[in-house]
Amino acid sequence: MRVLAVTHGPSVGPGVFADAIEADGHELTEWQVPLGGAPPASGAADAVIVLGGGMHPDEEEQHDWLGRELRWLAGLLEAGTPVLGVCLGSQLVARAAGAEVFRAREPEVGWLPVERTAAGAADPVARTLPERFEAFQWHHYTHELPDGAVELARSQVCLQAYRLGTALGVQFHPEVRAAQVEAWLAEEPDDVTEPEVLRAETRRRIEAWNELGRSLCSTFVTTV
User: Fold this and answer.
1) What is the pLDDT of residues 126-173, one digit of tens each?
2) What is residue 147's three-state secondary structure?
3) What are phi and psi of 23, to 5 degrees?
4) How confident is the model at residue 117 (pLDDT cuts 50, 70, 90)?
5) Active-site positions?
6) What is the spatial distance between Cα 54 and Cα 201, in angstroms, rounded to a whole number?
7) φ and ψ of 146, to 5 deg
8) Strand pairing of 167-170 and 159-164?
9) pLDDT tens per residue, range 90-100
10) Angstrom distance (rounded) from CA 56 to CA 89
11) DSSP letters along 99-111, please?
12) How far is CA 69 from CA 39, 57, 133, in A?
């Protein structure tokens, strides 16, 4: 199977998702959108994973490529291409489906509690998540639930996972490696008031979190 990872910067790649895709014998390619180039042709991938980024989903004036990506994502949704959106990727998929994106009432950065819904327990991919778990998060924005979508998980702050047909979005970061956390700390130091506390918690949690991330990605690709 051909899996395309859509990335928005050098430190926000597929992480442990790449391990799962390789272990399952699939082909992974990447399209780093800010570098330019035409979007991959329709049908170029059997599944698409849209990853995070330091920008926000409504910043077309600062990032002129966002409009192009949104139009491309809308085409994927219309075609029924399986899509997994992560953080910014989840927000962009929701916006491409017509949902409003906006700043969350407070940012979520670090290891924070998430609860799966009853619909999540029945979903073929989201059911790999525990009923309640501490998820690694790093976001300032959220979005409405797109028309026709089902909420799969949420936190005290906002929607955390949803399904819209063959598309799945998660606000948290199941793909993240410890090295990526370090990179984000360097890139966005003002987002974390106690970086050493975050580092210590990451060291304690990251192995199990990476196992969950690989399982989530593998299940997504398998169900395609």
Assistant:
1) 999 999 999 999 999 999 999 999 999 999 999 999 999 999 999 999
2) coil
3) -60, -30
4) very high
5) 87, 173, 175
6) 22
7) -60, 150
8) antiparallel
9) 999 999 999 99
10) 10
11) --EEEEEEEEEEE
12) 8, 11, 32
**For residues 176 and 194, what is the distance between their CA atoms, to the nearest angstrom?**
19
For the record, the structure tokens of 175 come out as: 């793909």
Task: With cut-offs at 50, 70 and 90, classify the pLDDT of residue 205.
Answer: very high
Any residues with CB less than 8 A from the CB of 46 and at least 6 apart, and which? 1, 2, 3, 82, 224
Q: Do 135 and 143 form a contact (C-beta atoms < 8 A)?
A: no
Homologous superfamily (CATH) for 2-223: Class I glutamine amidotransferase (GATase) domain (3.40.50.880)
Percentage of the chain surpassing pLDDT 90? 93
What digits encode the pLDDT tens for the residues 48-89? 999 999 999 999 888 989 999 999 999 999 999 999 999 999
Residues in the chain, total: 224
How far apart CA 166 and CA 151 sit, in angstroms, is 14
Domain positions in the chain? 2-223
User: Which residues, 6+ apart, have CB-to-CB distance to 67 below 8 Å?
Assistant: 60
82 is written with which tokens? Answer: 């399986």
